[in-house]
Design brief:
The structure holds two protein chains of two kinds. Chain A is α/β, with parallel strands linked by helices. Chain A is built from four helices and five strands. In chain A, 32% of the residues are buried. Chain B is an alpha+beta fold. In chain B, a hairpin with a 2-residue loop joins strand 9 and strand 10. Chain B is built from eleven helices and twelve strands. The radius of gyration of chain B is 72 Å and the shape is rod-shaped. The chains are: A alpha/beta, B alpha+beta.
Chain lengths: 137, 533
């Protein structure tokens, strides 16, 4: 949904269960409900079953490509047609140092990227601001 | 080519001289001979005339004119004598070898008579040379005429016939005409002979000289010319070989010696050339091997660097993941979502969170420094507007500065020349320097950024009124992880890497750093960068 519904649903995909735990608490303290997934495959399932308003996707080192390709699929694939408009925020534990996003070569492969990025550690005000900005669109 | 030949010119020259000299010689010779012969002949003719006169003297004295006539006729038949006659003093022929002339009067103006009778008074005496004259007869024959005056002598005017008076000087003239045929023939033969001798002399001399020139000059010189031509073509084996024992021969010998020396030099050069080629080959091979090694080493280094970068990334990921969770946990507890905390709990959690933050800062700085030091770091140089850049940095740290009432003053003119630098990296430099300046300055202090234009360089000064750096600590200030004692004692947080990062970036820009400080008063950090052309 495009409106900033007080109970907007956020899907968080991350392989770190502790992070899922703290981010869930953070988001629940705000005006959001949370759905979690441990990996992109589970994320896809939850996407179809829960239909969230926004996706917070962690760029995991071990399944880099899966994270990127899921984002690309959501945005371009026919299969994900109904979720095409769902905003995606990448969450990264690798900060950009050089001023240009380190994207593990996904640009060369022509994959469509997320709507926003956020670095770990995640500050709640920063996270909320970005979510609101994207939900308002 | 023939016209230009020295030999031909010489020959021609000699020929001309020979013709002239021998010609003149021959001519003079012929003339002298002629004169001599004429003289001799005249003398002989004269003697003959005298002799004839003697032979008829007796007959004249005895007035036997018939005897005289007979004698004359006889003499007239002699080969070589053309004509003989006697005139009396009046010019009447009284005796002659041809009888029909007798009694005729000859003209006293005739060429035979003019010698004496040309003047009014005839000559009394006649020299022997005057008595002779040469002329041509009617039929073309050349003759020599001798006039022999018959002088009156006592024998004559005292003779029995009493014909001639005493006072008569000349009684008559005997005129003999002698044929010059033989004489002319002789002269002709003589001349022919001389000419033939002249011609053969000329031929001989010319021929001799030609031969000499050909043998001793032309041939050796052509050999020399051939030699120089061969050498010019590169054939250093050519030798003249045989030499005459003269100057040209010497030249030939010298030439051969020179050729031999040239060949030696050439061989020497070739030897060295070969050696050089060999050395170059060896060196090139060595260079190639070294190059291969270097390439290998380079590749290895690159690999290692990549491995390091990869390692750092993985390290970062792990570290940050842990720290992120730790910080989030602490921050959530501190927000008192679940229950209130007592003062001590709050303090401890706050301390933990603060140190977690510090850990994240340290991680950031380590990664930045590692990146800047690696081969991965790329600098995209462009002309940078200093005022804009510094202004952006100041905006970022504005909040911290305001919190402690620190005033940041930017003294950079808008039209200041641009600096050639990587904008992101330069921003990093001034972010560090300004953050430091604010961090280490007390409340209500001032931070000042100014610029100076030097010859080809730009100097940017970041000045603060902070705690300053002790002079003994200044040398270490840019070292990795170094924190000055007074920084720690003032309880100011820091990673110790900020200035190390600044140094790394400035040096990568081929610039340099300067620091001036007074403990307790403040510090001035100067960045020196090359100016854009």
């Amino acid at each position: 949904m495009k409106t900033s519904d007080p109970k907007a649903k956020i899907l968080v995909i991350d392989d770190d269960p502790d992070f899922l735990k703290v981010v869930s608490i953070m988001l629940k303290s705000g005006p959001y409900t949370v759905v979690t997934a441990k990996n992109p495959q589970e994320g896809k399932e939850k996407l179809f079953s829960e239909k969230p308003d926004l996706i917070l996707l962690d760029i995991m080192m071990d399944s880099l490509f899966d994270g990127y390709s899921l984002c690309n699929d959501i945005k371009t694939s026919e299969e994900y047609e109904e979720f095409k408009a769902t905003p995606v925020i990448f969450c990264s534990a690798v900060k950009d140092i050089t001023g240009s996003r380190f994207n593990f070569g996904s640009d060369e492969q022509g994959l469509v990227g997320p709507d926003d990025y956020i670095d770990k550690p995640v500050q709640s005000d920063d996270l909320f601001a970005r979510i609101e900005k994207l939900l308002k669109k | 080519m023939f016209r230009r030949s020295l030999a031909v010119k010489l020959l021609f020259f000699i020929a001309v001289i020979l013709i002239l000299t021998i010609g003149i010689f021959a001519y003079i010779n012929i003339n002298i001979q002629k004169k001599y012969l004429i003289g001799e002949m005249q003398q002989n003719a004269f003697l003959l005339s005298q002799t004839i006169e003697r032979s008829i003297k007796h007959d004249m004295l005895t007035a036997r004119s018939d005897y005289i006539q007979r004698t004359l006729e006889n003499i007239g038949e002699q080969e070589g004598i053309e004509h003989i006659r006697i005139f009396d003093k009046k010019g009447k022929i009284i005796a002659a070898d041809s009888t029909d002339e007798i009694g005729t009067l000859i003209d006293m103006q005739a060429e035979a008579c003019t010698t004496c009778h040309s003047s009014k008074e005839p000559l009394k005496r006649l020299s022997s040379s005057d008595r002779a004259r040469t002329f041509n007869l009617e039929n073309g024959d050349r003759v020599l005429g001798i006039i022999n005056p018959i002088y009156n002598e006592p024998q004559c005017y005292n003779s029995a016939c009493h014909f001639h008076p005493e006072d008569q000087n000349v009684l008559g003239v005997m005129d003999i005409l002698i044929s010059l045929d033989r004489f002319d023939e002789q002269i002709g033969t003589n001349r022919k002979q001389i000419l033939i001798y002249f011609f053969f002399t000329f031929l001989l001399i010319s021929g001799g000289i030609s031969l000499f020139i050909i043998l001793f000059v032309n041939t050796p010189i052509h050999k020399l010319i051939e030699g120089t031509r061969r050498i010019a073509e590169g054939d250093l084996d050519y030798r003249i070989g045989s030499y005459h024992s003269n100057e040209i021969g010497e030249l030939g010998k010298s030439f051969d010696r020179m050729t031999a020396k040239l060949k030696e030099s050439q061989e020497e050069i070739e030897k060295w050339n070969l050696k050089l080629k060999n050395e170059v080959k060896k060196a090139t091979e060595k260079l190639r091997k070294t190059n291969v090694e270097l390439n290998g080493a380079n590749k290895k280094l690159q690999e290692l660097d990549n491995m390091k970068s990869d390692f750092m990334r993985r390290m970062e990921h792990g570290s940050r993941s842990h720290l992120a969770v730790i910080q989030s946990c602490l921050s959530l507890v501190l927000k008192e979502y679940f229950s209130e905390l007592n003062e001590q709990q709050k303090d401890l959690v706050a301390t933990a969170e603060r140190r977690c933050s510090a850990m994240l800062d340290l991680l950031d700085d380590i990664l930045i420094l590692s990146y800047r030091k690696s081969t991965e770091a790329v600098y995209h140089m462009e002309p940078v507007h200093m005022r804009d850049l510094v202004q952006k940095v100041v905006e970022d740290i504005h909040a911290q500065a305001q919190k402690r009432n620190i005033e940041i003053d930017i003294q950079i003119p808008s039209d200041f020349p641009r600096v050639l630098a990587d904008p992101e990296a330069l921003k990093e430099v001034f972010s560090n320097l300004l953050t430091n300046a604010v961090k280490y300055t007390r409340e209500h202090g001032t931070v000042n950024v100014s610029v100076k234009l030097k010859k080809g360089f730009i100097e940017i000064d970041v000045q603060d009124t902070g705690i300053g750096i002790a002079s003994e600590n200044l040398p270490e200030i840019f070292s990795e992880f170094y924190r000055a004692p007074n920084a720690k004692s003032h309880k100011i947080e820091g990673t110790g890497l900020g200035l190390a990062i600044v140094k790394e970036i400035v040096e990568a820009h081929h610039g340099s750093l300067k620091v001036q400080s007074e403990l307790g008063k403040g510090s001035t950090f100067t960045v020196i960068l090359p100016k854009t052309k």
